Input
Amino acid sequence: MFSHYIKALILLLLAIVCNRFSILYAQSSSDTIRVTQELDAVVISAERINKEIIPVQALSGQKLQALSVHSVADAVRYFSGVQIKDYGGIGGLKTVNIRSMGSHHVGVFYDGIELGNAQNGVVDLGRFSLDNMEA
Output
């Protein structure tokens, strides 16, 4: 049993000695590059592409009359990627969901003013009639 301790002690001392030599060898400064190079100025130029990231969808007044929709919620159903959740039929809450992000992540604006509910941010699209809008 005493021989196991001696073997472990010898291995430990050997590891310490080898570690010291590797530290001394790693500190040589002869392998560094001391020459610096300067490059000319690099000019990057580009032109802005005037393209909408998100495609704009619109329904004309003639199309709305042909579809016989009466509220904004009914009209928005025809846009791609938009789902309307109807909670309760006529007079019930109608929320908009775009690309399955949830109604809390959708902003609805009218003339630059956000229409979100102060309590939960959800907009009831059933409140807005198309009779009050111009085509």
